[in-house]
Write a structure and sequence with these properties.
heterodimer, A: mainly beta, Jelly Rolls, eleven-stranded mixed sheet, 0% helix, B: mainly beta, 44% strand, disordered N terminus
């Protein structure tokens, strides 16, 4: 256990409706919350991802989005090295391999703060994501089980990320979503922390502690289903309905570097 | 935008600097360097930004640029560029640069951006910045920028902004017509920006390749392919060309090859060095491995005088204009150029070689007075010994275009090609009939391992420049000949007949006498024709088989001809008959091609002339030509001894059987019976009656089979024992004789016809073969009282020519008991590699130029069949037999034994000698040494009568019957000589190991 297992978050000003945030004024309009670290992977042990924490999704078939890649558990596609998890999309002469890992069956939680420090890949058709699905998805079919996309990104737009929720009546193309971007920076040059803080009646989206989206039950066009445990997923897709297809100009291989994934629960009254 | 602000204080400080520089104040200069420069980002928004100037590039259309207030992306104006049409008199392209007189500090930006559109879809050749009309140290450009009719934003990343502290070059462009057509494009909102959204800088050298180059000391060449790749805001990579100043170059071994700040590599010593680079702290992709083989060896310095040379590439001479030294002919050419200079010596260097063209069409080269093409080639790497380099010299031909009617001289530089040393090649131009419009030299490899070479001193040379000249050397000296075999009109080699006039009064041309290298030559200056008259000393050239004349012209020979007419007076005082030979710019059969600037020896059989070849009363010769100048020498007729190889020169042996015991169908020696036809309708052959050395002979050509008939009076050969015929062919591989007897009814059919065919495979060629065939051998010919058909068969079917003489039946009356009745011992089976056979049925015999070269007047041998085995029988009175294969010389050094079998029926062996001699030419044109095997009655083995004597002797050492010289690496002839032997048969002449 790390000694700094209690994190104090200072809320930041929520700038509603602004697509691109150029300013950096830090003036929180939110009440302070106190979180305690309950689950983490710092990716410090070289080799395959920690089996006690992560399971692999394997295979092809498009994953519901006409994605092109085949997911593998090969080290060339997914490995822990140099202090980070590296998920790499490879072009094998027009067929693509990559990886997708999840905490399903190993860790899930309702509410709290879910964060990951990530340096993203780039290039048209590259679609990395840090996201969550309802842990009851096998008995309670999607979208009723719910989906929280903490971070999605299109490689042809390397200065913008997206945060979304999917649920009954607001799934797929009708998801509730907002984007956050830089006027003069990109997400594939340095690490950035992508996080949601999730409570019984809110989900707040952050990039580097800048709050850019607040979703509350009233914002939804359907039922609030974010009241039960969710598990986390990290993946890099290639192509698909969301991102479009890679071009001959897309540089390969492309790696998503994840420095850490941490999960907290809120400690009330402390 | 936060970054859109002006650093006014900096501009004011610059103003102060200018004042300080122009005043008398003695301010410390170092202090001033701390002053910062303006960071103004705008280049052109709605007009020129502060301090901006424009200059059009040289050769461009200077009015191409203007400010357009109608068409603009935003604001009030844009820059408009009117690209000219092809061949616009005002300029070939649009191009210019926008620059400031005071540098700007652009280090806070990461890209130059602008918006652009065009009147049609097009690609702009080059746009960029950093062109300050001076050093342009930090030049950056983007090639082939696609524009269309919609406004679009373009980004040119700055490879390393920290370098641009005082940049003056703000923007430049260059664009030519598209497919010959001009168009218009507009550019607006040109400015430097800090985008922050371009990332992943990756410098490259050599376009990112890891290249290996062979080199020599002293070579200097730049590291090319410099660029920097960025990932653009769209996620895709884009590379800009970047000046060397953005890079820091490093050599892994400075003592082998150093590299300076501009990326210029200098090769210093033998060894290997790897050149790499960084830019902005990032390692560049790509490297250059330099393998130096040490000091450069300059090509040999050419010795010819400038006035005798037309130089294409040499530092020794003034070179003619050359279109290119590498045509980069797509798509098949892989050859690239890495030409270099060591000291003052420029050298062409072809790499990745498969073929390359050097072209010189403006103007083409008139090499009429040139005799050779010279070039020096150096191959740095090892080459397969089988590989060769072909040199093709191309003349445009009469149409003056490079197309299908070009004339090409192909010369192969034979392998093994030397590596790491200069190969000097001097290619005679005589094979190129016209060389007044030379346009290309094409070099092509034959093989696969020759991947590159240096080339230097490519030039044509000749006897002298400028005007057409005389031959520099004498015509080839004619060979020594027996005076009886030559009738010469003009030659220093022979005794000449009297000639009345070398340019008769009735001709329209002129003649002059001159000497070249001590040799007399006639020079004709033609209008139309020249007459040579020797009517006061007419001669009979009937015994001569060939005509010879050497000619030389300085003229372009394309479309030119020379005709030679021999005039026979037929015993009278004026032309009765004539025959003509015409020489043109291409060779045909025996007639060579005209050539410019080299001696051409016209040496042809009389049969090459057209017309009546009667030559018993020759009186005049007429030379007609549209050439202006012709030098002639060595005009003579001669008799080719022993045959030409394609037709018999000597008559068939005269038969010796007593007329009383002969029934002759065709022979000059006997009275012949009536023959109905010498070629039946159903034959597959052509038939001619010819004379060979005055002897009437039957000639069948295109022979498959020919039928001869005596049906009106069948021959009763019941009293005869043999049939005889003499056959000569240069080309038959099989000969067959079929006899048909019509039976008792004396007519075709009737059920009583009998016939039989005998075949003689591998008959001797080029000699008269005498067949004396026992009629008993025709086993199926059970009757011979009414012989009516005689069929001769030749192979290859339909492509055989034979001469036939002395066809008769005879009764040997028991007189043929002399001579061997058994064949010579059959040689053992041997691997073909271990035998060189001259004459044997057991092995494959080598090709000879002349199997019976007539060294001792007439045919030396007759091939006979002894018990079905081809055997040579010495002809009566002849004591030497020459076998010439000088164009198929044999290196017999590794062969250890010579073999031959001989048989004599002489009763008196006193003084009998049989010699076999291997004649070695030692690379020359005549005998240099000889190895002889001498057999007589006292040697081992010895000549013994009445039995085959097999001689099979080791020739690796002298001694015993082996005499002379053991050298046998260039054996061109075999000579067999005899003394005192009356009758001798021999067979199985071969060498083995």
């Amino acid at each position: 256990m790390k000694s700094n297992n209690v994190l104090f978050i200072r809320g930041v000003l929520f700038l509603a409706g602004i697509f691109i945030l150029g300013g950096c004024e830090n003036n929180s309009g939110l009440e302070d919350r106190t979180y305690q670290l309950v689950w983490q992977d710092e990716f410090d042990a070289d080799g395959a991802p920690d089996e006690s924490k992560w399971a692999f999704d394997l295979g092809a078939g498009g994953w519901g989005n006409n994605e092109l890649q085949t997911y593998t558990n090969d080290a060339q596609n997914v490995v822990v090295a140099e202090g980070s998890l590296k998920i790499t999309a490879i072009n094998n002469g027009g067929s693509f391999s990559s990886a997708r890992i999840r905490t399903q069956g190993k860790f899930d939680q309702a509410y709290g703060r879910f964060e990951a420090r990530i340096k993203l890949p780039w290039g048209p058709g590259i679609w990395p994501a840090f996201w969550m699905l309802g842990a009851d998805i096998e008995t309670n079919p999607w979208p009723q089980s719910g989906e929280i996309d903490i971070m999605e990104y299109r490689g042809q737009q390397p200065n913008v990320i997206h945060g979304s929720v999917h649920g009954p009546g607001y799934s797929g193309g009708a998801a509730i979503t907002k984007s956050y971007g830089y006027a003069n920076n990109r997400f594939d040059v340095e690490y950035h922390v992508f996080a949601v803080e999730w409570g019984e009646d809110f989900i707040h989206y952050f990039v580097d502690d800048v709050l850019y989206q607040v979703i509350e039950p009233g914002d939804l066009t359907g039922e609030w289903v974010f009241d039960h445990p969710f598990f986390m997923i990290l993946n890099v897709a290639v192509g698909g309905d969301y991102v479009g297809f890679p071009t001959s100009d897309t540089p390969f291989p492309q790696t998503m570097n994840v420095d850490y994934v941490r999960v907290y629960t809120e400690v009330n009254g402390k | 935008m936060k970054n859109k602000k002006y650093n006014w204080s900096a501009i004011l400080l610059i103003a102060a600097l200018v004042l300080a520089g122009s005043g008398s104040c003695t301010r410390d200069y170092d202090e001033l360097e701390l002053v910062s420069y303006p960071t103004t980002p705008e280049v052109f928004i709605d007009g020129f930004s502060a301090g901006l100037n424009y200059a059009a590039f040289g050769g461009s259309k200077v009015t191409a640029f203007d400010v357009d207030k109608e068409v603009k992306y935003q604001g009030s104006a844009s820059m408009r560029f009117e690209v000219p049409d092809f061949e616009d008199p005002l300029g070939a392209y649009a191009g210019g640069t926008y620059f400031t007189t005071v540098g700007r500090d652009l280090s806070g930006y990461d890209a130059l951006t602008f918006w652009a559109k065009a009147s049609k879809s097009a690609t702009i050749d080059l746009v960029g910045f950093g062109n300050d009309l001076g050093e342009s140290k930090y030049l950056v450009s983007m090639q082939n920028v696609a524009v269309n009719t919609n406004w679009k934003k373009y980004i040119i990343p700055i490879p390393d902004p920290s370098r641009l502290k005082q940049e003056k070059g703000m923007f430049f462009y260059s664009e030519g017509p598209e497919d010959g057509l001009g168009y218009t494009f507009w550019i607006d909102e040109v400015k430097f920006e800090k985008l922050g959204t371009i990332a992943h800088r990756q410098p490259v050298i050599l376009n990112g390749d890891d290249r290996v180059e062979s080199a020599v000391n002293g070579l200097k060449f730049p590291v090319g392919g410099l660029g920097v790749s960025f990932n653009m805001p769209t996620g895709i990579d884009q590379t800009v060309n970047a000046a060397p100043a953005y890079f820091t170059f490093v050599s892994s071994n400075e003592s082998v090859a150093s590299v300076d700040a501009t990326g210029l590599v200098s090769v210093l010593s033998e060894g290997t060095a790897v050149i790499t680079a960084t830019a902005g702290g990032t390692d560049a992709m790509g490297s250059l491995t330099v393998n130096s083989s040490g000091d450069f060896t300059h090509a040999p310095v050419p010795a010819e005088d400038q006035e005798d040379v037309i130089s294409i590439f040499s530092n020794q001479y003034v070179n003619v204009p050359v279109d290119f030294y590498n045509g980069y002919w797509q798509p098949y050419q892989t050859t690239t150029s890495a030409d270099f200079k060591v000291g003052d010596d420029d050298v062409l260097f072809y790499t990745n070689f498969n073929f390359v063209g050097i072209q010189f069409t403006s103007p083409t080269i008139d090499a009429t007075t040139m005799t050779h093409l010279h070039m020096d080639v150096w191959i740095p790497n090892a080459v397969d010994p089988a590989d060769k380099l072909a040199v093709k010299l191309v003349d445009m031909g009469p149409d003056g275009d490079l197309d299908g009617t070009d004339l090409t001289l192909v010369y192969e530089i034979a392998g093994p090609l030397a590596s790491q040393s200069w190969i000097s090649v001097d290619i005679p131009l005589s094979g190129l009939s016209s060389r007044s419009k030379l346009a290309q030299i094409i070099l092509e490899r034959l093989g696969s391992t020759l991947t590159g070479f240096y080339l230097d001193n490519v030039y044509l040379y000749g006897s002298g420049g400028g005007t057409p000249t005389v031959p520099t050397e004498a015509a080839p000296a004619p060979p020594a000949r027996d005076p009886a075999d030559v009738i010469s009109l003009f030659s220093n080699a022979y005794t000449n007949n009297t000639v009345n006039s070398w340019s008769a009064e009735w001709d329209d041309s002129d003649v002059a006498d001159l000497q070249i290298s001590g040799d007399d030559v006639k020079k004709y200056t033609f209008t139309n024709f020249a007459g040579i008259d020797f009517s006061s000393d007419k001669f009979d050239a009937s015994g001569m088989t060939h005509f010879h004349i050497d000619i030389w012209t300085p003229d372009d020979v394309m479309s030119k001809s020379l005709s030679i007419k021999n005039v026979d007076f037929g015993g009278g005082t004026a032309e009765a008959t004539s025959h003509i030979l015409t020489v043109v710019h291409t060779a045909s059969g025996d007639i060579p091609a005209l050539a410019t600037g080299s001696w051409v020896s016209v040496d042809v059989p009389i049969t090459a002339f057209t017309g009546d070849q009667t030559r018993s009363d020759l009186a005049q010769m007429v030379l007609s030509s549209n050439l202006s100048t012709l030098y002639v020498d060595n005009i003579y007729f001669y008799k080719s001894a022993g045959g030409t190889g394609t037709e018999p020169a000597a008559a068939a042996p005269t038969p010796t059987h007593a007329a009383a015991s002969v029934i002759s169908m065709f022979s000059g020696a006997y009275t012949n019976v009536t023959v109905d036809t010498w070629r039946t309708d159903w034959s597959a052959a052509s038939y001619e009656e010819v004379t060979v050395a005055g002897d009437a002979t039957k000639k069948y050509s295109a022979l498959n089979f020919v039928g001869i008939e005596t049906t009106s009076a069948t021959i009763d050969a019941t009293a005869m024992t043999h049939v005889h015929l003499d056959v000569w062919s240069a080309d038959f591989t099989n000969f067959g004789v079929k006899l048909v007897d019509f039976g008792a009814d004396g007519a075709y059919g009737g059920g009583d016809d009998v016939e039989h065919q005998l075949n003689y495979p591998s008959p001797a060629r080029g000699v008269w073969v005498s067949y004396n065939i026992p009629l008993s051998d025709f086993a199926g010919l059970t009757t011979r009282g009414h012989l009516a058909q005689y069929i001769l068969v030749g192979e290859p079917a339909g492509a055989t020519t034979i001469w036939v003489d002395n066809i008769y039946f005879y009764d040997d009356g028991g007189t043929s008991a002399t001579g061997p009745t058994a064949a010579a011992p059959t040689p053992p089976a041997r691997s073909a590699a271990n035998v060189v056979s001259i004459f044997s049925d057991a092995y494959t015999n080598i090709t000879t130029d002349n199997f019976d070269a007539g060294w001792c007047e007439g045919a030396a041998v007759t091939q006979v069949s002894i018990a079905g085995n081809n055997t040579l029988k010495k002809n009566a009175g002849i004591v030497c037999h020459g076998i010439d294969f000088s164009t198929n010389r044999q290196n017999l050094s590794s062969f250890t034994h010579i073999h031959f079998d001989l048989y004599t029926d002489d009763t008196d062996l006193t003084g009998d000698v049989f010699n076999v001699k291997l004649v070695d030419f030692a690379g020359g044109a005549s005998e240099a040494s000889a190895l002889e095997v001498n057999i007589n009655t006292g040697t081992t083995p010895a000549i013994v009568a009445g039995t085959w004597v097999s001689v099979d002797i080791d020739i690796t050492a002298l001694g015993g019957i082996v005499t002379g010289n053991l050298t046998r690496s260039d054996v061109a002839q075999i000579g067999i000589t005899t003394a005192n032997l009356t009758n001798v048969w021999y067979d199985n002449i071969y060498l083995w190991k």
